[in-house]
Amino acid sequence: MKMIVRKDLCCGAALCAQMAPDVYRLDELGYNDMDGQTVPAGKEAEADTGARACPESAIKLVAD
Predict the structure, then answer these.
(1) Pairing mode, if any, of strands 59-62 and 2-5?
(2) What is the 3-state secondary structure (H, E, C) of the chain?
(3) What is the mean pLDDT of residues 48-61?
(4) In terms of Cα–Cα distance, which of 27, 26, 23, 25 is closest to 40?
(5) Pair 6, 58: CB distance under 8 Å
(6) What is the mean pLDDT of residues 41-49?
(7) What is the pLDDT of residue 8?
(8) How confident is the model at residue 54 (pLDDT cuts 50, 70, 90)?
(9) pTM to 2 decimal places
(10) Using CB atoms within 10 A of its CB, is residue 46 exposed (0-12), middle (13-18) or buried (19+)?
(11) How many Cα atoms sit within 13 Å of 3 on the Cβ side?
(12) What's the burial of 35, exposed, middle or buried (CB within 10 Å: 0-12/13-18/19+)?
């Protein structure tokens, strides 16, 4: 499963990282920095929780 992050939509609320700290990483300005990265094995549910927490719906999870 891959993470697609629309950086143009990311508002830096950081709810993704708060809800799924083992999955999402933020850059030095507080924006999601995981575009194109693979969800760690066994963390799919956590990744989904973090993606759903995004107020801007900037995160999509897609099958490999």
Answers:
(1) antiparallel
(2) CEEEECCCCCCCCCHHHHHCCCCCCECCCCCECCCCCECCCCCHHHHHHHHHHCCCCCEEEECC
(3) 98
(4) 23
(5) yes
(6) 97
(7) 95
(8) very high
(9) 0.92
(10) middle
(11) 29
(12) middle
Q: 11-33: per-residue pLDDT in tens?
A: 999 999 999 999 999 999 999 99
Alpha-carbon distance 40 to 44, whole Å?
A: 7
- How far apart are alpha carbons 20 and 1 in whole angstroms? 15
Structural domains for the chain = 2-62 (3.30.70.20)
